[in-house]
Amino acid sequence: MTPLGGVCYSKTMTKTTEQRINNIIGQLEGSKKMITDKNKDCFALIMQLKAIRAAMSSLMDKVISEEMDHCFINKNNNQEKIAKIFKEIIKK
User: Fold this and answer.
1) CA 27 to chain centre
2) What is the mean predicted confidence (pLDDT) over 9-38?
3) pLDDT exceeds 70 at position 30
4) Which residues contact 31 (CB under 8 A, 6 or more apart)?
5) Which superfamily, per CATH, for 17-90?
6) Rounded CA separation 90/69 (Å)
């Protein structure tokens, strides 16, 4: 459990990867509607896009964390594949 503001959260309380993806899809759909709206609120759109970027970053962190054992430590992976994965992660 991880303390956060005096409250402990277990892994069962965190969002699943699928939930995170669904949230991002919802945010993207909302952004799409905002973009096509003739009376769009540019500030709200920017805030929504920033939220999407943060959610994507959080999703990437979660996937890397959960899959580290499978992708990086698995004996079947070679050094070239691991280097390719890290190169992709840090590429902008």
Assistant:
1) 12
2) 84
3) yes
4) 45, 48, 49, 52
5) Metal-sensitive repressor, helix protomer (1.20.58.1000)
6) 19
